[in-house]
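Attaching the record inline, Q. Sequence:
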Amino acid sequence: MDLSLLFWIYLINSVILINHEIDSAYWQEWKLVNPNDTSDVKGFLIIHFPMLFAILFGLILIDRGLIAGYVISLIVAAGGIFAFFFHFYHLRKGRKEFNNWLSKLILILTFPISIFQIALTIMDLI
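Structure, as predicted:
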């Protein structure tokens, strides 16, 4: 089995981002956008079914060398970069969510791995 470097970086980034999403449920991430939101986790979980399916399906498509996999790879990596900036913006504003060493480590790891994933995706496409 000859798996590309992109496959492994995508897999690593996906595991990190999925762990971030687990952490997001703990911190009730939806309240970062709307602090007055009194809803519970149900809506948050529902939107994660298609999101996690797309992330995992994208890995299969990358393994098969399909263009859709490369598109999903770029979207997943962009999501990692967005998560990094979104959460550190809120941390700098004094929010308590994600303010522990493991939550921060997960976010910090997403940034360089996502940049590397974008670079590998583009290099594989050209």
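The chain has a mean pLDDT of 93. DSSP finds five helices and no strands in the chain.

More tomorrow.
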